[in-house]
Amino acid sequence: NVLHAIAGLLLLLLLSACTGAQSAFDTGGVEAERVLGMFWIMVVGAAVIWIFVIGLSCYVTRVSPRAVDDRIGIRLIIWGGCVFPTLVLAGLLFWGLGMMPELRRPADGPTIAVSGERFWWRVAYDVEGGPGVVRNLPPGGVPSANEIWLPVGQRSTILLGSPDVIHSFWAPSLAGKMDAIPGRVNRLVMEPTRTGVYNGVCAEFCGEAHAQMGFRVVVVSEQEYAAYVRAQAAPAAVTQGPGVDLFLRNGCAACHSVRGTTADGQIGPDLTHVASRRTIGAGLLPTTPENIAAFIRSTDHVKPGVEMPSFGMLPEAEVTAIAQWLGSLE
Ligand code: CUA
């Protein structure tokens, strides 16, 4: 029992270390608060039951079996084994059902489409809603990738889909997980309660780079959100120069779009405002021209399993010029 106590204390210490932008214990959204509330009630309930069962076990090992009255044993089975679990489980069921109308409350914020793709997140702001055919998500919207901005205090709708395998969209500080499933559109509502930058991950094993399939959620005021989406809708800031020519000549446009240039590939992330995003490689590296160059040069080293091929065969000066241009696209 001393060992149990020590293990319990260690677990508590571990849990207390779970703070930061990616923790279900450090909530920044209504949905995550509800999940955390349910978690604590179940932890306390489980602890009470555990102490009772362990206490009972200790008691019966210390007294002679004959000293325990048969009638007590039968009562324990009926009350402890049948009535008590039935009441507890029924209580939890009705409590959970009671939460559902609240969770279904209609969203009043923007609708954002997010597609989980091996191994990044396609994002489209202000889509019309209603499932569409373009890569399993509603057509249109303002394209972006791997970073999702949300207005604080509003219920935003995230429409989730996937063109390849099942992924799972999870920003632990904001809401529970929701799968992104090929062939259907799932709906997740998020109501952030405070501004800040939150980390998210793919929570369903989807292939080699599953662990590097992250994203950021940036929660800002309503005005900042509107300004951000307007800025993302605009064409690229720089559409001419050596970086642009090299980008087009080396075939980058087969997969990537940069609006304002002739690059209109749809396979990889839209790069029109890539430098406005905090990370490249889906939450992997901070966005700097140096990191962009490193990524282009050897994707397979930076992010093993990534679909984008390495361009290590290009002369260093060309990689640098492309990275400098992309690094200027805020
Ligand atoms: Cu996508 Cu794991």
TrEMBL record:
Q: What molecular function terms (GO) are annotated for this protein?
A: copper ion binding; cytochrome-c oxidase activity; heme binding
Q: Which Pfam families match?
A: COX2 (PF00116), Cytochrom_C (PF00034)
- Catalytic activity, as annotated: 4 Fe(II)-[cytochrome c] + O2 + 8 H(+)(in) = 4 Fe(III)-[cytochrome c] + 2 H2O + 4 H(+)(out)
Q: Where is the Cytochrome oxidase subunit II copper A binding domain?
A: 107-231
- Cytochrome c domain boundaries: 238-330
Does the record carry Amino-acid biosynthesis as a key word?
Answer: no
Regions that span the bilayer = 39-60, 72-97
Q: Does the keyword Phosphoprotein apply?
A: no
**Which Gene Ontology terms describe the biological processes this protein takes part in?**
ATP synthesis coupled electron transport
**The entry's keywords:** Copper, Electron transport, Heme, Iron, Membrane, Metal-binding, Signal, Transmembrane, Transmembrane helix, Transport
Source domain of life:
Bacteria
Alphabetized InterPro entries for the sequence? CcO_II, CcO_II-like_C, Copper_CuA, Cupredoxin, CuRO_CcO_Caa3_II, Cyt_c-like_dom, Cyt_c-like_dom_sf
Q: Which residues form the signal peptide?
A: 1-23
Cross-referenced Gene3D superfamilies:
Cupredoxins - blue copper proteins
One cellular component term (GO) for this entry is: membrane
Q: What is its main location?
A: membrane
* Matches recorded under PANTHER family: CYTOCHROME C OXIDASE SUBUNIT 2 (PTHR22888:SF9), CYTOCHROME C OXIDASE, SUBUNIT II (PTHR22888)
So what family is this one in?
Belongs to the cytochrome c oxidase subunit 2 family.
Q: Supply the name of the protein.
A: Cytochrome c oxidase subunit 2
Q: What is the lineage of its organism?
A: Bacteria, Pseudomonadati, Pseudomonadota, Alphaproteobacteria, Hyphomicrobiales
